[in-house]
Specification:
This protein is an alpha/beta fold. It has two domains: about 1-265, Alpha-Beta Barrel (TIM Barrel); about 270-360, no CATH class. About 45% of the residues lie in helices and about 20% in strands. The chain contains 15 helices and 16 strands. The chain has helices at about 45-50, 60-65, 65-70, 75-80, 90-95, 125-135, 150-175, 190-205, 220-230, 250-255, 265-275, 305-310, 310-320, 325-350, 355-370; strands at about 1-10, 10-20, 20-25, 30-35, 55, 85-90, 100-105, 110, 120, 140, 180-185, 210, 240-245, 260-265, 275-280, 280-285. An eight-stranded parallel β-barrel has the order 4-5-6-10-11-12-13-14, surrounded by five helices. Helix 7 (about 150-175) runs parallel beside helix 8, helix 10 packs antiparallel against helix 15 (about 355-370) and helix 14 runs antiparallel to helix 15. It is globular, with a radius of gyration of 20 Å.
């Protein structure tokens, strides 16, 4: 993998990741396609919005329909009709979420399926086998996501396990990879010395990119920001930096300011399905009665398909009737909004005006886009 930093504005980086399936302009946002689909969207629509890369979930695709089925059908790109890059997570975070249904040991993780209760055992090698079969362009190492809060003793033992798993992932991956790239995941909880140790060990193993994991797991924002600020500057300059599972706009702006290149989150798509939409005026809950007879577009400053063709009144009507089209139109808008937001950030870095962008946008974001 080649990562080229085109422009720096402070620590913020405007770059390009070059892969066999195309270029990824950074900072980038990856829409989440859990089951091989970004919910309610076609791949053509995602492509037309300007997204270069999407994310799919190893855990879910392993359970259903199964990685061997996808491999036999030509891999995930063919399966879902997406010819751009795909990143697959390792399955570690989903298994972390099944705390009552899993057991961790040195070899791997035993867990029960959330679908049918069947028993499974995933090792670092198995995670690599699944992701190689899926044919994703960027493969994530298998790790343990540490819960918040955790003691220093727990984090220390967990980190030893994650580092050992990272070595095993790399060994297996190098034997069987197919024009794919492997990212290591920096864990270590909220202990700076643990994060430093984790990063140093991963750099020795040598990965194609480096991710920050174990953040946005219930901690106060100040603690997440402190870890991002502390460790991002120590990450290799010539490799992509990925902040996993973070997508709130204020968090994104802060992380980009400190040199992070890649993001993913379900915020735009999940909020869309729940009737919460992102606009130039802030968050709008389309279910509110004030929109019942509102003929105006959702966002007068937006030129997405939804805003060009439908009124707030119609969008509210669809949502209240639980029409499938509601999910589609809302998702189209929210993903378009995120695509344009990231485009504006890239342009600001290119123009040397990222600080001005941040000073202008953060007060607006904090006032209008905070969680209800």
């Amino acid at each position: 993998m080649i990562f080229k930093c085109i422009k720096k504005d402070g620590l913020a980086r405007r770059g390009v990741i070059y892969t066999e399936r195309g270029e990824i302009q950074t900072p980038c946002f990856m829409p989440v396609g859990t089951n091989g689909t970004v919910k309610a969207m076609t791949t053509d629509e995602i492509r037309e919005m300007g997204y270069d890369i999407i994310l799919s979930n190893t855990y879910h695709l392993y359970l259903r329909p199964g990685h061997e089925i996808i491999r036999k059908l030509g891999g995930l790109h063919t399966f879902m009709n997406w010819n751009g890059p795909i990143l697959t997570d390792s399955g570690g975070f989903q298994i972390y979420s099944l705390s009552s249904l899993r057991k961790i040991n040195r070899e791997g993780v035993e867990f029960r399926s959330h679908i049918d209760g069947s028993s499974h055992f995933i090792t670092p090698e198995k995670s690599m086998e699944i992701q190689i079969a899926l044919g994703s362009d960027i493969v994530m190492a298998f790790d343990e996501c540490v819960p918040y809060p955790s003691t220093l003793e727990y984090v220390n033992e967990s980190l030893k396990l994650t580092t050992e798993w990272a070595k095993r992932c790399k060994e297996y991956f190098e034997k069987y990879k197919k024009q794919q790239y492997l990212f290591g995941i920096v864990q270590g909880g909220f202990f700076k010395e643990m994060r430093q140790t984790a990063l140093a060990d991963l750099i020795k193993i040598d990965f194609d990119g480096y991710a920050l994991g174990g953040l946005s797991v219930g901690e106060p924002k100040e603690e997440m920001y402190e870890i991002v600020r502390f460790i991002s500057s120590q990450m290799p300059q010539d490799k992509p930096r990925y902040l996993m599972g973070v997508g709130e706009l204020s968090d994104v702006v802060y992380a980009v300011e400190h040199g992070i290149d890649m993001f993913d989150c379900v915020i735009p798509t999940r909020n869309a399905r729940n009737g919460t939409l992102f606009t130039s005026q802030g968050r709008i809950s389309i279910k509110r009665s004030e929109f019942k007879d509102d003929p105006s577009p959702l966002d007068p400053q937006c030129d997405c398909y939804t805003c060009r063709n439908f009124s707030r009144a119609y969008l509210r009507h669809l949502y209240m009737c639980r029409e499938i089209l509601s999910m589609r139109l809302n998702t189209i808008h929210n993903l378009y909004f995120y695509a344009r937001f990231f485009e504006k950030m890239r342009n600001a870095i290119s123009n040397g005006s990222f600080h001005m962008f941040k000073e202008k946008m953060l007060p607006v974001i904090e006032k209008n886009f905070s969680h209800d």
